[in-house]
Amino acid sequence: MNRFARIWDSDVAWSFRHSPVAMAAAFMALLIVLAAALAPLIAPYDPFNPATLNLMDGFTPPMEPNMISGNVYWLGTDNQGRDIFSTILYGARISIFVGFSAVVFAMVLGIGLGLTAGWRGGWVDSALMRIADIQLSFPSILIALLIFGIARGLIPPSMREDLAIWVLIVSIGLADWVQFARVVRGATLVEKNKEYIQAARVIGVRPVRMVLGHILPNVMGPVLVIATISLALAIIAEATLSFLGVGVPPTQPSLGTLIRIGQGFLFSGEWWILLFPSITLLALALSVNLLGDWLRDALNPKLR
User: Fold this and answer.
1) Which residue from 56, 10, 183, 33 is spatially nearest to 111, judged by alpha carbons?
2) Which residue, among 278, 290, 284, has the nearest Cα to 234 in the 3D structure?
3) The domain made up of 20-38+83-303 is a member of CATH 1.10.3720.10
4) Which of 115, 257, 298, 299 is deepest in the core (most CB within 10 A)?
């Protein structure tokens, strides 16, 4: 109870309670995540089970009965008769999973390399930072495309579809580790020259314990802010790759795949196939971005 009271009275909690934008963004992000996580319970149909699909229900407009079957769908159906509402829930699960996993992978890799570069210094620091500088000279989506293409070429054709999501996670993660590494490296250079680290060295504390037990907790504030903002960028990157046809397999379409499918029918009058997945992706990315902006301000001591 005392711990909950301390959290409730903290500066971050106070800032959240007094920020309507942050509360609205958190509500929207939580609503989409919970809906995606509970998709098997919420979705009225399983859109990826061929046995439940009826081609006669294809291109049914939202909230209008189908002329043949008479079925009514909240957000309409696509060309295969799949319920758009159900496909959005299942597609959001894949987009959120890929985005979150890619950010975790990039964060772990970036923190590890940033701590190593900042602590060791010398040629290790120079080599890692030059690699980071080279990677920053290219758009991250091109890096992800390159890594995805190389990985797909190395994987046997029989395993490509099964490993497509994991290859996508690694591709996006390897494209986004640089920002974590640079921030952690800069914070490590500052922290390792402070008095408490010098005192730890005098009493014989092992370097690994100093880095993980003392320096790492003090650099996590900026890392959490970057991770929150990177989550929205990773979800958009996944949607972009899937839209280009190099993301998740067609049997497990994400929001990007649904948008690509809907784009093909936009000018033929079936606007709902594109509109509703696009709104969902926009709402998810925008809410996460707004949370990242709030967290950046809340953890900035100069703004308190």
Assistant:
1) 183
2) 284
3) yes
4) 257
- What's the pLDDT at 220? 87
pLDDT 10s digits, 50-61: 777 788 888 888
- Written as six digits, the tokens of 115 are 């701590």
Mean pLDDT of 25-52: 89
- Which DSSP helix (H) or strand (E) runs through 132? helix 122-136
Distance CA 301, CA 135 (A): 31
Q: What local confidence, expressed as pLDDT, does residue 104 receive?
A: 95
Asked if 177 and 109 touch (Cβ cutoff 8 Å), the reply is yes
8-state DSSP, 61: P
Neighbours of 116 (CB within 10 A): 18
pLDDT one-digit tens code per residue, 228-253: 889 999 999 999 998 888 878 777 78
Q: Which residues, in sequence order, are CB contacts of 228 under 8 Å at separation 6+?
A: 288, 291, 292, 295
Tens-place pLDDT, residues 188-205: 988 888 888 888 888 888
Both structure tokens of 43: 């979705």
Return the number of other C-beta atoms located less than 10 Å from residue 13's C-beta. 13
Q: Of 243, 260, 258, nearest to 144 (Cα)?
A: 243
Task: Assess contact for 253 and 91: CB atoms under 8 A.
Answer: yes
Rounded-to-integer distance, Cα 49 and Cα 45, Å: 9
**Higher-scoring residue by pLDDT: 15, 109:** 109
